[in-house]
Write a structure and sequence with these properties.
4 strands; 4-stranded parallel sheet; 5 helices; alpha/beta
């Protein structure tokens, strides 16, 4: 059975319904302690590359191209993605955590859609 996957901002208070909490950013969120983040895992190797992250810089106008480029990176990183999917399939509820301020234009949105199609 496929797990239920949601997206939340890592700065939000953890909820008991979050299940398996995974940070999917390459960089650690500013000003946040590991205890406060309450993570089960931090997956850096499937986050957007540093070059892509810097290029996008959360510019909404670049969103369509960011989605394409990040999806291409995920497809090229099949081993890491498959390892992550194998871990996710052991869970019932998964929360993908991101640090960006924009809830609609961040890497977790793209990653969730990519993973849902692959699982």
């Amino acid at each position: 059975m496929k797990p239920v996957m949601i997206i939340r901002r890592v700065y939000d208070e953890p909820l008991s319904t979050d299940g398996y909490r995974v940070l999917v950013d390459r960089l650690w969120p500013r000003g946040l302690t590991k205890e406060k983040a309450s993570l089960d895992e931090w997956i850096k190797d499937i986050a957007p590359s540093a070059a892509l992250r810097k290029w996008f810089d959360h510019t909404v106008e670049l969103w369509p191209e960011f989605r394409k480029r990040y999806t291409a990176e995920l497809k090229a990183n099949e081993d890491a993605v498959n390892r992550f999917i194998n871990e996710l399939l052991k869970q019932k509820h998964i929360t993908l955590l991101y640090a960006a301020k924009d809830p609609d234009h961040n890497n977790a949105v793209v990653l969730k859609q990519f993973l849902e199609k692959k699982m």
